[in-house]
Design goal:
about 475 residues, alpha/beta, Rossmann fold, Spore Coat Polysaccharide Biosynthesis Protein SpsA, Chain A, 9-stranded mixed β-sheet, 5-stranded mixed barrel, 18 strands, about 35% helix
Protein backbone atom coordinates (compact mmCIF):
# COMPACT_ATOMS: atom_id res chain seq x y z
CA UNK A 1 0.00 0.00 0.00
CA UNK A 2 1.40 3.39 -1.00
CA UNK A 3 1.97 5.97 1.71
CA UNK A 4 0.20 9.32 1.58
CA UNK A 5 1.98 12.66 1.33
CA UNK A 6 2.35 14.31 4.77
CA UNK A 7 -0.18 17.15 4.82
CA UNK A 8 1.88 19.68 6.79
CA UNK A 9 5.61 19.54 6.10
CA UNK A 10 6.66 23.15 6.73
CA UNK A 11 5.47 25.38 9.58
CA UNK A 12 6.23 29.09 9.46
CA UNK A 13 6.18 30.87 12.81
CA UNK A 14 5.79 34.63 13.08
CA UNK A 15 5.20 36.67 16.21
CA UNK A 16 2.75 39.39 15.23
CA UNK A 17 -0.44 39.38 13.20
CA UNK A 18 0.53 42.64 11.50
CA UNK A 19 3.73 41.00 10.24
CA UNK A 20 1.76 38.53 8.11
CA UNK A 21 0.04 39.46 4.81
CA UNK A 22 -2.74 37.03 5.81
CA UNK A 23 -5.13 37.66 2.91
CA UNK A 24 -2.35 37.22 0.37
CA UNK A 25 -1.17 33.94 1.90
CA UNK A 26 -4.70 32.55 2.05
CA UNK A 27 -5.22 33.51 -1.60
CA UNK A 28 -2.18 31.31 -2.34
CA UNK A 29 -3.64 28.34 -0.46
CA UNK A 30 -1.58 28.77 2.73
CA UNK A 31 -3.47 28.47 6.00
CA UNK A 32 -2.75 31.21 8.58
CA UNK A 33 -3.87 30.73 12.19
CA UNK A 34 -3.05 32.06 15.61
CA UNK A 35 -1.85 29.58 18.20
CA UNK A 36 -4.96 30.31 20.27
CA UNK A 37 -7.22 29.36 17.36
CA UNK A 38 -5.30 26.15 16.73
CA UNK A 39 -5.50 25.17 20.39
CA UNK A 40 -9.25 25.78 20.24
CA UNK A 41 -9.68 23.23 17.48
CA UNK A 42 -9.01 25.18 14.28
CA UNK A 43 -6.46 22.55 13.22
CA UNK A 44 -9.34 20.24 12.30
CA UNK A 45 -10.55 22.82 9.78
CA UNK A 46 -7.11 23.63 8.36
CA UNK A 47 -7.14 23.23 4.58
CA UNK A 48 -3.41 22.79 3.97
CA UNK A 49 -3.23 22.92 0.18
CA UNK A 50 0.47 23.72 0.02
CA UNK A 51 2.05 21.64 2.81
CA UNK A 52 2.65 24.94 4.66
CA UNK A 53 0.98 26.22 7.82
CA UNK A 54 1.67 29.70 9.19
CA UNK A 55 1.24 30.10 12.95
CA UNK A 56 1.03 33.51 14.62
CA UNK A 57 2.60 32.80 17.99
CA UNK A 58 2.21 36.11 19.79
CA UNK A 59 5.13 38.29 20.89
CA UNK A 60 7.67 37.38 23.54
CA UNK A 61 9.77 34.43 24.61
CA UNK A 62 7.02 32.69 26.60
CA UNK A 63 4.43 32.86 23.81
CA UNK A 64 6.99 31.72 21.27
CA UNK A 65 8.09 28.81 23.43
CA UNK A 66 4.49 27.73 24.05
CA UNK A 67 3.88 27.69 20.29
CA UNK A 68 6.99 25.61 19.70
CA UNK A 69 5.93 22.98 22.22
CA UNK A 70 2.45 22.83 20.68
CA UNK A 71 3.90 22.37 17.17
CA UNK A 72 6.31 19.69 18.40
CA UNK A 73 3.62 17.75 20.25
CA UNK A 74 0.70 18.10 17.84
CA UNK A 75 1.98 18.19 14.29
CA UNK A 76 5.11 17.68 14.08
CA UNK A 77 6.38 18.96 10.71
CA UNK A 78 9.66 18.23 8.93
CA UNK A 79 10.73 21.87 9.06
CA UNK A 80 9.97 24.93 11.18
CA UNK A 81 11.03 28.33 9.85
CA UNK A 82 10.80 31.37 12.12
CA UNK A 83 10.49 34.59 10.14
CA UNK A 84 9.75 38.12 11.25
CA UNK A 85 11.18 41.53 11.87
CA UNK A 86 14.17 42.33 14.05
CA UNK A 87 16.18 45.25 15.24
CA UNK A 88 19.78 45.53 14.14
CA UNK A 89 22.49 46.05 16.75
CA UNK A 90 25.42 46.02 14.36
CA UNK A 91 25.04 49.07 12.13
CA UNK A 92 27.29 47.58 9.46
CA UNK A 93 24.21 45.73 8.26
CA UNK A 94 21.52 47.61 6.29
CA UNK A 95 17.83 47.57 7.12
CA UNK A 96 15.37 46.25 4.56
CA UNK A 97 17.18 42.96 3.97
CA UNK A 98 16.72 39.32 4.97
CA UNK A 99 19.21 38.12 7.59
CA UNK A 100 20.24 34.52 8.28
CA UNK A 101 21.71 34.12 11.79
CA UNK A 102 24.08 31.28 12.59
CA UNK A 103 23.39 31.36 16.33
CA UNK A 104 20.46 32.27 18.57
CA UNK A 105 21.18 33.47 22.11
CA UNK A 106 19.28 34.62 25.18
CA UNK A 107 20.03 37.19 27.85
CA UNK A 108 21.29 34.52 30.26
CA UNK A 109 24.28 33.86 27.99
CA UNK A 110 23.02 30.61 26.48
CA UNK A 111 23.53 30.09 22.74
CA UNK A 112 22.40 27.53 20.17
CA UNK A 113 23.73 26.96 16.67
CA UNK A 114 20.99 27.25 14.06
CA UNK A 115 20.52 25.20 10.92
CA UNK A 116 21.43 27.75 8.26
CA UNK A 117 20.13 25.61 5.43
CA UNK A 118 16.73 26.82 4.27
CA UNK A 119 13.78 24.52 3.52
CA UNK A 120 12.45 26.89 0.85
CA UNK A 121 14.08 28.67 -2.08
CA UNK A 122 16.06 31.55 -0.62
CA UNK A 123 16.94 34.87 -2.29
CA UNK A 124 20.57 35.31 -3.27
CA UNK A 125 20.92 38.58 -1.35
CA UNK A 126 20.29 37.13 2.13
CA UNK A 127 22.90 38.47 4.57
CA UNK A 128 24.58 35.92 6.82
CA UNK A 129 25.06 37.19 10.38
CA UNK A 130 26.63 35.54 13.40
CA UNK A 131 23.90 35.84 16.00
CA UNK A 132 20.47 37.10 16.99
CA UNK A 133 19.68 37.57 20.67
CA UNK A 134 16.14 36.98 21.89
CA UNK A 135 15.21 39.33 24.74
CA UNK A 136 12.37 39.58 27.26
CA UNK A 137 11.59 43.23 26.49
CA UNK A 138 12.23 45.57 23.60
CA UNK A 139 15.11 48.04 23.83
CA UNK A 140 15.13 51.55 22.41
CA UNK A 141 18.81 52.45 22.40
CA UNK A 142 21.00 52.09 25.53
CA UNK A 143 21.74 48.44 24.84
CA UNK A 144 23.45 46.62 27.70
CA UNK A 145 27.00 45.56 26.91
CA UNK A 146 25.85 41.92 26.85
CA UNK A 147 23.77 42.68 23.74
CA UNK A 148 26.44 44.53 21.80
CA UNK A 149 28.33 41.38 20.82
CA UNK A 150 25.29 40.24 18.83
CA UNK A 151 24.20 41.43 15.39
CA UNK A 152 20.43 41.59 15.77
CA UNK A 153 17.70 41.48 18.41
CA UNK A 154 14.28 39.79 18.49
CA UNK A 155 11.91 38.29 21.08
CA UNK A 156 11.32 34.71 19.94
CA UNK A 157 14.00 32.85 17.97
CA UNK A 158 16.02 31.36 20.85
CA UNK A 159 13.02 29.91 22.69
CA UNK A 160 11.85 28.05 19.60
CA UNK A 161 15.34 26.87 18.67
CA UNK A 162 15.70 25.38 22.16
CA UNK A 163 12.45 23.42 21.90
CA UNK A 164 13.30 21.88 18.50
CA UNK A 165 16.96 21.26 19.29
CA UNK A 166 17.66 17.53 19.00
CA UNK A 167 14.21 16.60 17.71
CA UNK A 168 13.33 15.19 14.29
CA UNK A 169 12.13 18.64 13.21
CA UNK A 170 14.78 20.98 11.81
CA UNK A 171 14.54 24.59 12.94
CA UNK A 172 15.53 27.53 10.74
CA UNK A 173 15.40 31.30 11.00
CA UNK A 174 15.16 34.27 8.64
CA UNK A 175 14.85 37.77 10.04
CA UNK A 176 14.13 41.07 8.30
CA UNK A 177 15.90 44.13 9.67
CA UNK A 178 13.45 47.00 10.05
CA UNK A 179 15.30 49.31 12.46
CA UNK A 180 18.43 49.81 14.56
CA UNK A 181 16.68 49.24 17.89
CA UNK A 182 17.36 52.81 18.95
CA UNK A 183 15.17 55.80 19.86
CA UNK A 184 13.78 55.74 16.30
CA UNK A 185 12.96 52.01 16.42
CA UNK A 186 9.16 52.28 16.49
CA UNK A 187 9.04 54.89 13.74
CA UNK A 188 11.42 52.91 11.53
CA UNK A 189 9.60 49.64 12.27
CA UNK A 190 6.24 51.05 11.17
CA UNK A 191 7.84 52.69 8.13
CA UNK A 192 9.45 49.42 7.01
CA UNK A 193 6.54 47.13 7.80
CA UNK A 194 5.12 47.41 4.28
CA UNK A 195 8.57 46.71 2.87
CA UNK A 196 8.72 43.58 5.03
CA UNK A 197 5.29 42.51 3.79
CA UNK A 198 6.41 42.79 0.16
CA UNK A 199 9.70 41.01 0.91
CA UNK A 200 7.71 38.18 2.49
CA UNK A 201 5.55 37.84 -0.61
CA UNK A 202 8.71 37.77 -2.72
CA UNK A 203 10.19 35.10 -0.44
CA UNK A 204 7.16 32.92 -1.08
CA UNK A 205 6.83 33.58 -4.80
CA UNK A 206 7.32 29.86 -5.42
CA UNK A 207 3.66 29.49 -4.40
CA UNK A 208 2.79 30.75 -7.90
CA UNK A 209 4.21 27.59 -9.41
CA UNK A 210 1.32 26.99 -11.82
CA UNK A 211 1.70 23.90 -13.97
CA UNK A 212 5.42 23.09 -14.26
CA UNK A 213 6.82 22.79 -17.76
CA UNK A 214 9.07 19.75 -17.92
CA UNK A 215 11.95 18.71 -20.17
CA UNK A 216 12.69 14.97 -20.11
CA UNK A 217 16.28 13.92 -20.79
CA UNK A 218 17.08 10.33 -21.82
CA UNK A 219 20.81 9.53 -22.21
CA UNK A 220 21.43 6.39 -24.27
CA UNK A 221 24.35 4.30 -25.47
CA UNK A 222 23.82 1.02 -27.32
CA UNK A 223 20.47 0.29 -25.74
CA UNK A 224 18.61 -0.92 -28.79
CA UNK A 225 16.87 -3.55 -26.67
CA UNK A 226 15.43 -1.16 -24.08
CA UNK A 227 15.38 2.44 -25.31
CA UNK A 228 12.03 2.06 -27.10
CA UNK A 229 10.39 0.90 -23.88
CA UNK A 230 11.81 3.96 -22.09
CA UNK A 231 10.74 6.50 -24.72
CA UNK A 232 7.29 4.97 -25.14
CA UNK A 233 6.72 5.28 -21.38
CA UNK A 234 7.41 9.02 -21.63
CA UNK A 235 5.16 9.47 -24.66
CA UNK A 236 2.39 7.66 -22.75
CA UNK A 237 2.44 10.02 -19.76
CA UNK A 238 -0.90 11.38 -18.55
CA UNK A 239 0.91 14.68 -17.92
CA UNK A 240 2.95 15.29 -21.03
CA UNK A 241 6.34 17.00 -20.90
CA UNK A 242 7.02 19.99 -23.09
CA UNK A 243 9.94 18.22 -24.75
CA UNK A 244 11.73 14.87 -24.80
CA UNK A 245 15.47 15.11 -25.40
CA UNK A 246 17.28 11.86 -26.18
CA UNK A 247 21.06 12.20 -26.06
CA UNK A 248 22.75 9.49 -28.13
CA UNK A 249 26.26 8.95 -26.78
CA UNK A 250 27.59 7.63 -30.12
CA UNK A 251 25.66 4.36 -30.20
CA UNK A 252 26.97 1.74 -32.64
CA UNK A 253 23.99 -0.65 -32.51
CA UNK A 254 20.49 -0.06 -33.89
CA UNK A 255 19.72 2.68 -31.37
CA UNK A 256 20.09 5.55 -33.93
CA UNK A 257 17.53 3.90 -36.25
CA UNK A 258 15.07 3.45 -33.38
CA UNK A 259 15.43 7.11 -32.41
CA UNK A 260 14.96 8.23 -36.01
CA UNK A 261 11.66 6.32 -36.20
CA UNK A 262 10.08 8.70 -33.66
CA UNK A 263 10.40 11.66 -35.99
CA UNK A 264 9.47 14.99 -34.40
CA UNK A 265 8.04 13.37 -31.25
CA UNK A 266 11.49 13.58 -29.70
CA UNK A 267 14.59 15.74 -30.07
CA UNK A 268 17.77 13.76 -30.68
CA UNK A 269 21.23 15.05 -29.76
CA UNK A 270 24.12 12.93 -30.97
CA UNK A 271 27.46 13.44 -29.25
CA UNK A 272 30.56 13.49 -31.43
CA UNK A 273 32.51 11.03 -29.26
CA UNK A 274 31.40 8.51 -26.66
CA UNK A 275 31.63 10.56 -23.45
CA UNK A 276 29.65 8.77 -20.73
CA UNK A 277 26.37 9.42 -18.88
CA UNK A 278 27.48 12.67 -17.22
CA UNK A 279 28.36 14.36 -20.51
CA UNK A 280 25.14 13.07 -22.08
CA UNK A 281 22.97 14.40 -19.26
CA UNK A 282 24.81 17.73 -19.24
CA UNK A 283 24.28 18.11 -22.99
CA UNK A 284 20.58 17.50 -22.45
CA UNK A 285 20.46 20.06 -19.63
CA UNK A 286 22.08 22.71 -21.82
CA UNK A 287 19.60 21.99 -24.60
CA UNK A 288 16.51 21.96 -22.33
CA UNK A 289 14.16 24.92 -22.64
CA UNK A 290 12.08 24.46 -19.50
CA UNK A 291 12.36 25.21 -15.78
CA UNK A 292 11.96 21.61 -14.60
CA UNK A 293 14.06 18.63 -15.67
CA UNK A 294 13.27 14.92 -15.43
CA UNK A 295 15.78 12.19 -16.28
CA UNK A 296 15.09 8.66 -17.46
CA UNK A 297 17.82 6.07 -17.92
CA UNK A 298 17.38 4.19 -21.17
CA UNK A 299 17.02 0.81 -19.44
CA UNK A 300 14.26 2.02 -17.08
CA UNK A 301 10.70 3.17 -17.72
CA UNK A 302 7.88 5.11 -16.04
CA UNK A 303 4.35 4.28 -15.03
CA UNK A 304 1.75 6.33 -16.89
CA UNK A 305 1.12 8.84 -14.06
CA UNK A 306 4.72 9.43 -12.99
CA UNK A 307 4.94 13.08 -14.04
CA UNK A 308 1.31 13.77 -13.12
CA UNK A 309 1.85 12.58 -9.55
CA UNK A 310 5.07 14.56 -9.22
CA UNK A 311 3.32 17.71 -10.43
CA UNK A 312 0.54 17.07 -7.91
CA UNK A 313 3.20 16.67 -5.22
CA UNK A 314 4.75 20.01 -6.17
CA UNK A 315 1.38 21.71 -5.95
CA UNK A 316 0.96 20.30 -2.43
CA UNK A 317 4.55 21.06 -1.41
CA UNK A 318 5.77 23.81 -3.77
CA UNK A 319 8.85 24.73 -1.72
CA UNK A 320 10.81 21.72 -3.01
CA UNK A 321 13.24 22.19 -5.90
CA UNK A 322 14.17 18.49 -6.00
CA UNK A 323 11.93 15.50 -5.59
CA UNK A 324 11.83 11.86 -6.62
CA UNK A 325 9.34 9.01 -6.84
CA UNK A 326 9.37 5.57 -5.29
CA UNK A 327 10.39 2.63 -7.48
CA UNK A 328 9.57 -0.90 -8.50
CA UNK A 329 12.67 -3.07 -8.99
CA UNK A 330 12.81 -5.79 -11.63
CA UNK A 331 15.88 -8.03 -11.66
CA UNK A 332 16.30 -10.75 -14.28
CA UNK A 333 12.63 -10.45 -15.15
CA UNK A 334 11.31 -10.82 -11.58
CA UNK A 335 10.09 -8.15 -9.18
CA UNK A 336 12.26 -7.88 -6.05
CA UNK A 337 11.93 -5.90 -2.85
CA UNK A 338 14.38 -3.08 -2.27
CA UNK A 339 16.77 -3.57 0.66
CA UNK A 340 16.10 -1.54 3.80
CA UNK A 341 19.32 0.40 3.31
CA UNK A 342 18.00 1.63 -0.05
CA UNK A 343 14.91 3.18 1.58
CA UNK A 344 14.37 6.61 0.10
CA UNK A 345 14.48 9.46 2.62
CA UNK A 346 12.43 12.66 2.73
CA UNK A 347 13.58 16.16 3.68
CA UNK A 348 17.23 16.66 4.60
CA UNK A 349 18.60 13.54 2.93
CA UNK A 350 22.29 14.47 2.69
CA UNK A 351 23.56 12.54 5.69
CA UNK A 352 21.64 9.35 4.80
CA UNK A 353 22.97 9.61 1.24
CA UNK A 354 26.66 9.66 2.20
CA UNK A 355 26.89 5.88 2.48
CA UNK A 356 25.23 5.15 -0.87
CA UNK A 357 23.18 6.93 -3.51
CA UNK A 358 19.55 7.11 -2.42
CA UNK A 359 18.35 9.21 -5.35
CA UNK A 360 17.65 7.54 -8.67
CA UNK A 361 18.05 9.71 -11.79
CA UNK A 362 15.04 7.99 -13.35
CA UNK A 363 12.86 9.13 -10.44
CA UNK A 364 14.00 12.74 -10.23
CA UNK A 365 12.19 15.96 -11.03
CA UNK A 366 14.51 18.90 -10.39
CA UNK A 367 14.81 22.56 -11.26
CA UNK A 368 17.22 23.15 -14.12
CA UNK A 369 18.63 26.19 -12.30
CA UNK A 370 19.62 23.96 -9.37
CA UNK A 371 21.55 21.60 -11.65
CA UNK A 372 23.33 24.55 -13.23
CA UNK A 373 24.13 26.15 -9.86
CA UNK A 374 26.04 23.05 -8.77
CA UNK A 375 27.89 22.60 -12.05
CA UNK A 376 25.95 19.71 -13.58
CA UNK A 377 27.14 16.11 -13.47
CA UNK A 378 30.88 15.55 -12.97
CA UNK A 379 32.16 14.31 -16.33
CA UNK A 380 35.36 12.94 -14.77
CA UNK A 381 33.35 10.22 -13.01
CA UNK A 382 32.50 7.21 -15.22
CA UNK A 383 30.01 6.01 -12.56
CA UNK A 384 28.55 7.41 -9.31
CA UNK A 385 28.10 10.77 -11.03
CA UNK A 386 24.52 10.82 -9.73
CA UNK A 387 25.73 10.14 -6.17
CA UNK A 388 28.04 13.15 -6.51
CA UNK A 389 25.35 15.43 -7.99
CA UNK A 390 22.66 14.71 -5.42
CA UNK A 391 25.10 15.12 -2.52
CA UNK A 392 26.05 18.58 -3.79
CA UNK A 393 22.40 19.61 -4.02
CA UNK A 394 21.04 17.92 -0.89
CA UNK A 395 23.75 19.50 1.27
CA UNK A 396 21.82 22.76 0.92
CA UNK A 397 18.31 21.82 -0.27
CA UNK A 398 15.71 19.33 1.00
CA UNK A 399 14.27 16.61 -1.24
CA UNK A 400 10.63 15.73 -1.61
CA UNK A 401 9.44 12.15 -2.03
CA UNK A 402 6.33 11.16 -3.95
CA UNK A 403 5.27 7.83 -2.41
CA UNK A 404 3.73 6.54 -5.65
CA UNK A 405 5.54 3.57 -7.23
CA UNK A 406 6.03 5.39 -10.51
CA UNK A 407 9.47 4.26 -11.70
CA UNK A 408 10.33 0.77 -12.93
CA UNK A 409 14.04 0.00 -12.65
CA UNK A 410 15.49 -3.01 -14.43
CA UNK A 411 18.65 -4.73 -13.22
CA UNK A 412 20.69 -7.83 -13.89
CA UNK A 413 21.56 -7.14 -17.53
CA UNK A 414 25.21 -7.35 -18.54
CA UNK A 415 25.61 -3.84 -19.98
CA UNK A 416 24.98 -2.11 -16.66
CA UNK A 417 27.87 0.14 -15.68
CA UNK A 418 27.98 -1.52 -12.25
CA UNK A 419 29.20 -4.69 -14.00
CA UNK A 420 31.99 -2.76 -15.71
CA UNK A 421 33.06 -1.01 -12.50
CA UNK A 422 32.63 -3.50 -9.63
CA UNK A 423 34.52 -1.39 -7.03
CA UNK A 424 32.18 1.59 -7.37
CA UNK A 425 33.07 2.93 -3.93
CA UNK A 426 36.37 4.08 -5.44
CA UNK A 427 34.49 6.74 -7.36
CA UNK A 428 32.36 7.60 -4.33
CA UNK A 429 35.47 8.31 -2.29
CA UNK A 430 36.80 10.57 -5.06
CA UNK A 431 33.56 12.52 -4.85
CA UNK A 432 33.63 12.65 -1.05
CA UNK A 433 37.27 13.77 -1.02
CA UNK A 434 36.41 16.74 -3.24
CA UNK A 435 33.33 17.58 -1.17
CA UNK A 436 35.46 17.49 1.98
CA UNK A 437 37.78 20.15 0.57
CA UNK A 438 34.81 22.44 -0.04
CA UNK A 439 32.98 21.81 3.26
CA UNK A 440 33.36 24.55 5.86
CA UNK A 441 31.02 23.39 8.63
CA UNK A 442 32.84 21.18 11.17
CA UNK A 443 29.85 18.90 11.85
CA UNK A 444 29.25 18.19 8.18
CA UNK A 445 32.98 17.79 7.61
CA UNK A 446 33.14 15.13 10.35
CA UNK A 447 30.27 13.20 8.77
CA UNK A 448 32.13 13.13 5.44
CA UNK A 449 35.36 12.05 7.13
CA UNK A 450 33.67 9.19 8.99
CA UNK A 451 32.22 7.73 5.78
CA UNK A 452 35.41 8.36 3.80
CA UNK A 453 37.59 6.54 6.32
CA UNK A 454 35.19 3.61 6.42
CA UNK A 455 35.04 3.27 2.63
CA UNK A 456 38.78 3.74 2.13
CA UNK A 457 39.74 1.10 4.70
CA UNK A 458 37.44 -1.43 3.04
CA UNK A 459 38.81 -0.56 -0.42
CA UNK A 460 42.43 -0.82 0.71
CA UNK A 461 41.79 -4.18 2.32
CA UNK A 462 40.15 -5.46 -0.87
CA UNK A 463 42.88 -4.15 -3.16
CA UNK A 464 45.63 -5.66 -0.99
CA UNK A 465 43.82 -9.00 -0.93
CA UNK A 466 43.68 -8.99 -4.75
CA UNK A 467 47.28 -7.74 -4.95
CA UNK A 468 46.30 -4.45 -6.63
CA UNK A 469 49.08 -2.47 -4.96
CA UNK A 470 48.74 0.67 -7.10
CA UNK A 471 45.05 1.00 -6.26
CA UNK A 472 45.76 0.37 -2.58
CA UNK A 473 48.44 3.08 -2.53
CA UNK A 474 46.11 5.53 -4.30
CA UNK A 475 43.44 5.01 -1.65
CA UNK A 476 46.08 5.21 1.07
CA UNK A 477 47.11 8.67 -0.12
CA UNK A 478 43.50 9.85 0.09
CA UNK A 479 43.24 8.39 3.59
CA UNK A 480 46.41 10.23 4.66
CA UNK A 481 45.14 13.51 3.19
CA UNK A 482 42.08 13.41 5.45
CA UNK A 483 44.18 14.15 8.53
CA UNK A 484 44.51 17.83 7.68
CA UNK A 485 40.71 18.24 7.86
CA UNK A 486 40.31 16.78 11.36
Amino acid sequence: MEKSIPEIQLVITVALKKEVPKDWFESQGVAVHSLAALKSGALKQVACKTGILIIITGAGLSASEEAAYWIRDNLPPLFVLNIGTCGLIDRRYPTGRWLRPRHAANEDGDSLELDTRQPLPCPDDVINIQSVISVRKAYAGNHPDSLRKHDAIDMECYSQAKVFNGTGTSFHCLKFGTDYSDEHALTDFNKNLELFSQATKDLFDFLNIGLPKVSVIVPVYNRGETVKRAIDSVLSQSYMPEEIIVVDDCSTDRTPDILKSYGEKISVLRLQINSGPSAARNAGIRHARNEWTAFLDSDDCWERDKLKKQVEYLRKCPFYQLLQSEEIWIRNGKRVNACKHHKKPLGWIWEQSLERCLVSPSGVLVKKSLLERYGGFDESLPVCEDYDMWLKISRHHPAGLDPALSVIKYGGHQDQLSHRYPAMDRFRVESLARLLKEETHPDFRKKIIDILEKKLKILIQGYEKRQKSDDARYCGKILDSIKEFK
